[in-house]
Amino acid sequence: MYVRPTIEGQLITFGVSGKLWRDTLVMYDRQTRSLWSQLLGTAVAGPLTGRDLEVVPAEVTSWSAWKERHPETLVLRKPAREALEDTRRRGSSYGTYHADPDAIGVRGTKNPDDRLPGKTLVYGITRKVGFAAVPFALLEKSPVLNMEASSTPLVAFSPRGEAAAMVYERTVEGEELTFELIESQDGRLTARDRASGSIWSWESGECLQGAFQGKSLRRVTGTTVYWGIWVQFHPQTEIVLSGF
Amino acid sequence: MLAIGLSISGVGYGATPSLPDLQELEGDPIVTLLPPDGIPAIDNPRFASASKSKFMQDSEPVLGVVHNGIAKAYSIWHLDRHEVVNDDFGGDPVAVTW
Lengths: 244, 98
Known about the structure:
Order of helices and strands of chain B: EEEEEHEE
Strand content of chain A: 25-35%
Strand content of chain B: 35-45%
Number of strands of chain A: 22
Radius of gyration of chain A: 20 Å
Order of helices and strands of chain A: EEEEEEEEHEHHEEHEEEEEEEEEEHE
Distance between the termini of chain B: 4 Å
Shape of chain B: elongated
Strand order of the largest sheet of chain B: 1-2
Distance between the termini of chain A: 30 Å
Number of domains of chain A: 3
Strand order of the largest sheet of chain A: 4-5-6-7
CATH architecture of the largest domain in chain A: 3-layer Sandwich
Structural class of chain B: mainly beta
Helix content of chain B: under 10%
Number of helices of chain B: 1
Oligomer: heterodimer
Number of helices of chain A: 5
Largest sheet of chain B: 2 strands, antiparallel
CATH topology of the largest domain in chain A: Rieske Iron-sulfur Protein
Largest interface: A-B, 75 and 72 residues
CATH class of the largest domain in chain A: Mainly Beta
């Protein structure tokens, strides 16, 4: 998700161009007719070429998990006919695509890099700290993963075993912290750093209690994506294979 | 995120805007599958509260975001039909893209 910028007094709105690049969406903006890569968040043709969109961090999770954590949430409505289709199908209209281990996109792209199988779901870490792919299989095994990518100390929290992760830089005021997850008295999971014992929200990155109270971990944005797509954009990507 | 919408068509061909005729970028082809807006973005999204969300299934995958103090969820099954939502979080314009 991205902030929609205002450019020369015009608020940008996006449409679907009908074009694909590297098997991913190319958007256009209705104000300047520039083309934008959805995965990069960058204009790639037209008057705004080279311009980057600001990322709004989002996560992929299940509806039940999301509304439990955010009871006040709003949810996008669907037309009745489409809601009925979804109920009957119990899945995406792309169900067969997602189920096919060899298909990457509509044009039969072959996995360009067999360091991982093409349909491996990874959390692709973008911008700022360089590019790294964290396989969700690793996150499922380790609900809290202290790791290093592009020489940057990071921590990933994914306590529900779903394709959702919150990733932060784990350096605070020059000190490199390592985290564990603990169950608090009300049964909720919170993060604790081993050195100071401070309590942190894994969802927001804020320190709730202890020596670092009032500080926040810096969130690292990323995207949930198939390896075979990710590596087309970032052939030099690191893969995080273990953590601690 | 994964634009593979061959099965979706027939909407919004009226005022087809002309877009840059880009054939290739960084050595990889740009492939045109549909006309602009062949997959319709959502421009005026409407929302329900969690208590009025019978149209959602518990196991349904969602894209969730908290921004400007507002939490919103977007069904990924539904985003597969639209790919873009031009939304607004209390005055902060946001594009939901999939």
